[in-house]
Amino acid sequence: MIRMRRFTRGGGLVAFLVLAFAASAVAAPAGQPIRIGGTLALTGPLGPTALLHKLAGEMYVEELNKGNGLLGRPVEWVLLDDQSKPELARSLYEKLITVDKVDLIIGPYATSGILAAMGVAQRYQKVFVHHSFGMPHLAKYEMHFATAAFGPEPNRTIPTTVFDALAATANPPKTVAIITSKFPSAQFQSFGAKEIAEKRGLKVPLYLEYEFGTRDWGALAARVKDAKPDFVWIGALGLDGNQMLEAMKKLDYTPPRHFHLFPAPGPLVVAPDGKQALSVTVFEEHPPFMNNPGAAKLIPLFRERAAKANVPYTHVDTQVAGSLAAWQVLEAAVTATRSLDDKVLAQWIKKNRVDTIIGKLRFDGPNNYGDDLFKVKQVQDGKWVVVWPREFAAPGARLLPP
Amino acid sequence: MPSVTLLGQALVSGVLAGGLYALLALGLSLSWGLLRLVNLAHFALALLGAYLTYQLGHAFHLAPWVSAAIIVPLFFVVGMGLHVVFARFRVTEFTSLLVTFGLAVILESLIQWFWTADYRRYETPWASASVRVGPLFVPVLESLACLTAATLALGTWAWLRFTYVGKALRAAAEDAAIAGAFGVNHRRHAFVLSGISAAYAGVAGTFIALISTLAPSQIWVWLGVVFAVVIIGGLGNPVGALLAGFLIGASESVTMAVAAPAWAPLVSFSILIGLLVLRPERV
Question: Among residues A313, A201, A284, A259, which one has the least CA distance to residue B120?
Answer without folding.
Answer: A313
